[in-house]
Amino acid sequence: TNDGSVLKELCWALGSIAAGPPQASLVLVKSKFIPPLAALFNGSYIAVRKEVGFLFLSMCSALRQSPCPIFDILANTPGVMSSFIEFINL
Predict the structure, then answer these.
(1) Region of residue 79 (left: phi > 0; alpha: psi -120 to 50; beta: else)
(2) Three-state DSSP string of 15-73
(3) Residue 83 burial (CB count, 10 A)
(4) How sure is the predictor about 7, in pLDDT bands with cuts at 50, 70 and 90?
C-alpha cells in the first residue's frame, strides 16, 4: 500500500516486534525486511520515516551483541546512512 497511515502503523508494529527478544529482530533480518524498510526510510512520508528510524534503532539495540551483522547491513544498504543522519537531526 501507499497509504501513509497504514505504513506508519505497520512500521510501528514491526518496531514493537524488534523491541522484543533479539531473535525477533533476527527473524526480520533473515526475512529480508531491510531493503523494503530502507526504501521507506529513504522516501516515504515523514511519519513513516520516523517509525522506520525507531525500528532500525530497536533492531540495532536488540542485535548489538548478536553475530548478526545488522550494522553492516544497514551501512551497506543504499541511502540508509544519509536518511539516518537526517532522522536523528529531526
Answers:
(1) left
(2) HHHHCCCHHHHHHHHHCCCHHHHHHHHHHCCHHHHHHHHHHHHHHHHHCCCCCCCHHHH
(3) 21
(4) very high
What pLDDT does residue 78 have? Answer: 85
Q: Give yes or no for a contact between 50 and 35, defined as CB atoms under 8 angstroms apart.
A: no
- What are the angstrom distances between the C-alpha of 87 and each of 7, 21, 32, 43? 17, 25, 22, 12
pLDDT at 6: 94
d(CA 2, CA 67): 34
One-letter amino acid at 21 equals P
pLDDT tens column, 8-26: 999 999 999 998 898 999 8
